[in-house]
Amino acid sequence: MPLSTISRPRSLPILLVLLAAAAALLVFSSISPARGQSRHVVNEADNATLGRTILTTTKGRTLYSLSSETKGRFHCTGDCLASWRPLIVAAGVKPQGPVRLGTVKRPNGKIQVTYKGLPLYSFNGDVKSGEVNGEGLKDVGTWHAASVAQVNPPPPTTEPPPYPY
After folding, report:
1. Rounded distance, CA 85 to CA 143, Å?
2. Which of 64, 76, 128, 132 is the most exposed place for a label (fewest CB within 10 A)?
3. Longest dimension (CA), the chain
4. How buried is residue 13: exposed, middle or buried, by Cβ count under 10 Å (0-12/13-18/19+)?
5. CA distance 165 to 160
6. How far apart are CA 68 and CA 48, in angstroms?
7. DSSP letters of the chain?
8. How far apart are CA 153 and CA 109, in angstroms?
């Protein structure tokens, strides 16, 4: 019998292993670890210096926004980023925290976390938790700690108004 007409049977166990590996590859490749996942990236803390509740990173660093960065316009780029660090998440990650958060794409393509539509940053001048050394700094806008609410609202005044009724 010539060699070309001899057929060798395939090993069934090897075939099953290959099929199982291919199926596993399909299942795991369709699951993207970043897409659609939520990640806790923001906390809140009462800040006695400012007298209100502010947003912080998960490590307790104060988060700020720049007043002029609205409607997707970025002014903190280039040298500004040496002092102000954007709060970034991976593409497809939904940022979570004690308040409703959003995201915006930075000019470099990275995804930055926003609060009330304003991009969030930490300030390298804040060394310890609770510091707010960036509050009120002026640049192409004014930097403010991202505030949630006043800690101790002022008491209502009981004095009559300075004008007659």
Report:
1. 13
2. 128
3. 121
4. exposed
5. 10
6. 26
7. --GGG--PPPPHHHHHHHHHHHHHHHHHHT--SSTT-EEE-EEEEEETTTTEEEEEETTS-BEEEETT--TT-----GGGGGTEEE-EE-TT-EEESSS-EEEEE-TTS-EEEEETTEEPEEETT--STT--TTTT-BSSSBEEE-EEEESSPPPPP-SPPSS--
8. 40
Residue 1 corresponds to which tokens in the numbers above?
């019998």
The predicted structure's pLDDT at residue 139: 85
Residues of the chain with confidence (pLDDT) below 70: 1-13, 15-35, 150-165
